[in-house]
Amino acid sequence: MTTLFAGILIKLYELIGNYGITLIVFTVLIRLLLFPLAISQRKSMEANKRMQPKMAELQKKYGKDKNTYNQKIMELYKEEKFNPVSGCLPMLIQIPIIFVLFRILRDPSLYNLPKAALEQSFLWLPNMADPDVLSNIIPALPASLPRLPGLWPIIAAFFTYLTSKSTQAQTKPADPSQPQQGPDMSFMTILFPLMILFFGVSYPAGLILYWAVSNIVQYIQDLVITRLVASEDIS
Prior knowledge:
Strand content: under 5%
Number of helices: 8
Order of helices and strands: HHHHHHHH
Shape: elongated
């Protein structure tokens, strides 16, 4: 996968000529390829919300008998044609992509990526290999200050928070009186964006750029899918 992605990045760079724009185009292409899975994920979430009253009823009846309860849950999944794994696929697919990009940006020479591409400036970034820190925008910052995240880590953290909140809202029960099934991820909704800010001062700017653009596109896709769901264009 690493060689494949590196080859795609090289071809895009040869066409575009700017590595920052190349990463943005690459990211949008990845998100477009994942769009059908995003729709599948939303279908899974909506199905899960519809099933929660039935799951709560099964919990009341068979909660003390774990084997019977699990069997009944599996029967419910089969009856509703629900696959709990489908809701996790977009995130699971993103993980190897991030690791692949990290390897490419860390050792570009191993994948024949032009060194000039990583050394090329983009907007306020001097290059794609070094982290995006605040001193890129405000060079006059005192050297005694610790490295602070630049604009792309802040954008990445902000849209990570928005997409996490959107996902959290989608997993809430349709009936407010019903208890939520599964763990409450409210803490992770705050923690994950903070982690993005923290790692943003040490990870290559190209990787943070990918994550920021990916979450921006995902947020837009969520809005589109929400309208499709509301208009019953997908079911």
